[in-house]
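Table 4 source record.
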Amino acid sequence: MRFLHLTLVMLFLLMPVSAQEKSGEPTDEKARKTYANAQKYLHDRNKPAALDEFKKADKQDGGHCLACQKQMVKYGEELGEWKTAEQGAEEIVAQAQGPKDTALAHYQMAVVLMDEGMQKHKDDFFTRSHDEIGKALAAFSNFPDALFVDGRVLAQLKRDDEAKACFEQFAKAKPAEDPNRVRAMRYITRPELARARMVPPFSITTTDGQKISMDELQGKVVLLDFWATWCVPCREALPHLQKVAKKFQGEPLVILSVSLDSEEQKWKDFIVKNEMTWPQYRDGSFNGPVAKMFGVNAIPHTFTIDADGVLQDEHIGDASIEGKLKKLIAHARELQPAETPLK
């Protein structure tokens, strides 16, 4: 599983309406029909077929279909079709108009190359990503998110001093509550974490009003559980999860259940009836922000995260996780500061 880069997701939502955006969907008649087919495939959750159709529609439209190109980047990344993702990003760069659009386009290309480098473990992609960030900042210098990505890229290249400088600049430009700022502060003191498979930073509010931030849970093992009341395998796996919660009660472990239920009251009644006493959050659907961030396409789906926020294990369906949790919890205990003896 590849985490869908949060800043790339936000990029699609925040790109301003401009001359570049006006092209939107394809204008060629054949391309429009192909684009419509792609949307139908997406509705049916057939992403590979949808990606092929978006790519075909873009070609039929002479490489000018911005909407197609955005989908080529998005689903190319998600499915590991890197040539398609790069092609979409390159075409967006070629069509960019004005400093902001140009900066966003180069930034998007940089994110694709960074994620490709992390998946393929090749420094060449990180070098190219750093070059793209340079072009983005040259076009529009007031771009903190570009600095954050550049910091991550430079850390992958083991250029830690330069990476720290980027994270420091980013932190100065962002409010204290920004999840990526919290993450950047950790990278400043421990740049090796920027090279690890860190889970995406996120902040949620649970049913009991508790605000939970991924980075504020450092020092504790996290078991992230995606489920829904309408999911039969999820209901069948619930006794196992209850057993895990009871077995490790009092240990440095946080179980966080993220529901994909759309009906809030039904979800609340279920967790009360089944005494699900650990933190609960409702994301609403597979298109919920947290589910999309983690690339969840099937449930139950669990992620086991260590005390540093690094993903250690992932399972779809019920699975034996106690052994892994026991080891990670033992390590988390070792990281805890020793208590000062009473005098």
